Amino acid sequence: MLIGGVAPGVAAAEERSEKSQSSVAESVLERFTLAYSLQPGEKIRYEVTHQAKTKTRIRGAEEVSQVHTISQRHWDVLPSSTDGEMTFEHTVDSVEMTQQQGEEDEIRWDSQSGNEPPSVFSLVAEQMGKKLATVTINTHGHEIKREDHAGSKASLGMGTLTLQLPEEPVAIGQSWTVPHEVKARLENGEIKIIKIQERYTLEKVQTGVANLSLRSEPLTPMRDESVRAQVVQQLSNGEIRFDIDNGRMLSKQLDWDETVIGFQGPNSLMEYRARMTEQLVDDVQRTAKRN
Q1: Residue 260: what are its φ and ψ, rounded to 5°?
Q2: What does the pLDDT look like over 235-258, one tens digit per residue?
Q3: What percent of the chain is helix, strand and coil (3-state, nearest 5)?
Q4: Residue 40 pLDDT
Q5: Where is the region Disordered (predicted)?
Q6: Which residues form the domain of 78?
Q7: Into how many domains does the chain fold?
């Protein structure tokens, strides 16, 4: 008897062959280990640019605020007594800041200008050149220990200082997720915990550099638009380049493009457009030899 014009024995053999070929294909998929490799004595420098525009309309009154910041920061990598762990001190060296609120005059300040900072930037000015945190991570970028010395821990969706890398080697197209929580205040004053996960996907690997995509995915339903308006700055999509050979991030770009309608009444509106880029500065300095 023929099944679809093919004898049963032949059909079964072909099915086994297809499964075998699929299994072999999966087994030979090249997998890549993404891991940090920071050497004691290194001074790793990054330039971070953040620009954002927020437009709100409440009861017919519209206001636009804009910020633009360029900062230079670095990590001083310290000796570590534990295998598989790395410790670094995070310092912001300089910053150029611009802020404009509604119809008010634009406020500018460059920390290297020698000028007194406007009051709105006074807290930032106090942090220049100081250790903001001492952080210990494992090879996957997970924080083992963190001591904050100064400054705010607000992330604006930028996450932690390091990437949360997968614990196992990954193939191109494979994803992993990192959960975290943000807080939002309800109209009655209560605090609501919003669960979010960041989904990373390995898109491609070329000449030792892994290209990753990142997408924030809310897990907690947000039926109240006033809650969503507080959370959108924590939701970002972006691209990351990670140096597999040298074990560090080369660049990151995160984008926000959100519109919330009805967050303060039926005719209210909030639009949030922003971009954050972080770029490794090439002239990495080392004050001690690699082990």
Answers
A1: -120, 125
A2: 889 999 999 999 999 999 999 999
A3: 15, 50, 35
A4: 96
A5: 1-23
A6: 32-153+161-281
A7: 1
